[in-house]
Amino acid sequence: DMVFESYQNNLLLDEINDTDFNSTNTNYRVGADFFLSKKQTLGFLVGGSISDRETDNDNIIKISALPDFTSIDSVLVARNNATGGGNNYTVNLNYRYDITKEKTFNFDLDYGRYSSFSSRFSPNRYYQTINENVFLSETINVIDPENDIDIYTAKADYEQPLAGGFFGIGSKVSRVISDNTFLFFDEVNDTRIRNDQRSNVFEYLENVYAGYASYNRPLSEEISFSSGVRVEQTDATGTLTPFDTNLSEDPVLQNYLSVFPNLGFSWSPNRMNSYNLSFGRRINRPDYSVLNPFENRLSELSFEKGNPKLLAEIVNNVELGWTYQYRYNFKLGYSKTENQITRLIAPDTEDSRAGFITWANLAEQTIISGNISAPFQFGQYWNAFFNLSASFINNQADYGNGQIVDVQAFTYTFFTQQTFPLFEKMKGEISGYYSGPGVWGGVFLYETSWALNLGLQKKFFEQRLNVKLSAQDIFYESGWEGVSRFNGLESTGGGNWDSRRASLSLSYNFGNQEIKSRNRKTGLESEGSRVGGG
User: Fold this and answer.
1) How far from 168 is each of 142, 156, 163, 341, 522, CA to CA, in Å?
2) Quick one: which of 423, 425, 419 has its CA closest to 381?
3) What count of other Cβ atoms lies within 10 Å of the Cβ of residue 409?
4) CA gyration radius, the chain
């Protein structure tokens, strides 16, 4: 459920959204290791998922105008239905050679295919009043997007002892091909007519060539250091091809070389204290779905869309940490992000009544943060964990024509988890969090939220069967509310989802519990994580 009250272009739009989402997901993963010799291992992994989903959304917007916004000019009612699904799978081939106990070579080949499709029926009907008794006009659209993403990676790593420490070197090549088709239809007299001015094909091609090296070693019994550098060459092209050739645009080209060093020191003057200082620079690339410029509509006046011109964000961070008695952790951090990838709520340039959420790059985001985490034991059985984090956020951007982001916010979150024994060898758990006000995206200032969770757990049949009963957000307070002000649009809103729920889970461990599979990463994980939900 979402509600928004937006002021833009001398209009007040009072918006209510109710969305029901149903899905069925089947996930699978299978793998095997073949021991070619005592030192050589060949392994493969195959995994994937198949999903079907259906979404019903009611979007109702009451439109009022000056001078007092008290009388309703019209009401938009859009009762949408969307059906779709996806089929994803990944394949990994791994070769590992343990040359000696400390000298290793590892090679991964990966391929991933991510496909999704949907069909959205989007009627936009206008009425004179909220009772829908005086019909004014309607526009009916059908939207059929289809997305196919192919990812190829090859990755090699080598490690060996060197000068009292460990030296590592490696390289990785990745290729991403994203094909997206967006078909937009106007439905007139029950006949679908393709709208070539709004139908597009978007193709995104990305090649990344990376090389990296690392070295770490102790400098003394108390001090050690770690270091590394990663060099990446990125070549990417985004091409939007409209069905109406008069609307053609030049491709978006990105070609850049980036260097990412990292350095860390640790100092342990005694057994009770350990200090860490680290500096790092990293890159975060946008998800493929947010580069896609197609619209995802709640109605013709409320929608979201991607941005093919998004740049990767570069994060520079420094962190100082202190660990006491191997249990209590204290951290201070400072980070500055160039081209921070964020969300913005903005007015539409084509329709003065419409607003949308999009992705954009901030010029920079600065964060000063602190974190304290501490486990405690009260008596013999009561275990508790506490975590407190806080940060000051400064967002800055200037998009021209008065489109300025200048937002500062202080936010904090407290989390605790308590576990304790109950009767009949049953365990109980109480957990929850309280989050203070802060900023989401570029300019959306949100208010406080919190949640309280309860749980019970018991094991049967020689610890093989584990039964858990849990209840999350029992007071239903984890929703959100806040206000966004940007580019002449002021929008106040809030929302909830089905966060208050009870669940019963059972797991049973079969077979020989002493047999352990090799737990390893593949070369596809960073690229696969960018597929997102799009």
Assistant:
1) 54, 11, 13, 31, 18
2) 419
3) 18
4) 27
Name the DSSP class of 423: G
Task: Find out whether 21 and 58 touch, Cβ atoms under 8 Å.
Answer: no
Share of the chain above pLDDT 70, in %: 99
The model's pLDDT over 291-325, given as tens digits with 9 standing for 90+, comes to: 989 888 899 999 999 999 999 999 999 999 999 99
Enumerate residues 6+ apart whose C-beta is below 8 A from 526: none
Going across the sheet that includes 355-361, the strands are 295-299, 302-305, 355-361, 341-347
Element (H, E) at 28: strand 11-35
Extract the runs of DSSP E, i.e. beta strands, from 354-448: 355-361, 364-378, 382-398, 404-421, 427-435, 438-440, 444-446
Confidence band for 463, pLDDT divided at 50, 70 and 90: confident
On the question of pLDDT at 515 being above 70, the answer is no
C-alpha 464: how far from chain center: 34
Tell me the two tokens of residue 137: 């006009």
Do residues 115 and 147 make contact, with C-beta atoms less than 8 angstroms apart? yes
Cis peptide before 67 (omega within 30 of 0): yes
Task: Judge contact between 121 and 164, C-beta under 8 A.
Answer: no
The whole-angstrom separation of Cα 55 and Cα 121 is: 10
DSSP secondary-structure letter at 425?
Answer: G
Nearest CA to 93 among 76, 110, 105? 110
Residue identified by tokens 């059906």 is: 83
Q: Give the pairing of strands 449-460 and 465-472.
A: antiparallel
Specify whether the CB–CB gap between 401 and 365 falls below 8 A: no
pLDDT at residue number 425: 83
Q: What value does the mean pLDDT take over residues 326-339?
A: 97
pLDDT in tens, 90-109: 999 999 999 999 999 999 99
Mean pLDDT over residues 388-398, rounded? 97
Residues sharing a CB contact under 8 Å with residue 379, sequence separation 6 or more, in sequence order: none
Residue 528 phi/psi, 5° resolution? Answer: -65, -30
The confidence score (pLDDT) of residue 534 equals: 42
Of how many residues is the chain composed? Answer: 534
- Pairing mode, strands 465-472 and 438-440: unpaired
Do residues 214 and 228 lie in contact, with contact meaning Cβ atoms separated by under 8 Å? yes
Predicted structure pTM score: 0.91
Which among 110, 7, 10, 17 is positioned nearest to 65, based on CA atoms? 10
3-state secondary structure of 77: strand
Angle, alpha carbons 410-412-415 (nearest 5°): 175
Contact of 152 with 131, CB cutoff 8 Å: no
CA atoms of 48 and 115, how far apart (whole Å): 11
Alpha-carbon distance 380 to 149, whole Å? 53
Alpha-carbon gap, residue 497 to 299, rounded angstroms: 20
pLDDT band at 67; cut points 50, 70, 90: confident
Other Cβ atoms closer than 10 A to 305: 16
Res 533: pLDDT: 55
Q: Which segments of 490-531 does DSSP mark as H helices, in order?
A: 525-528
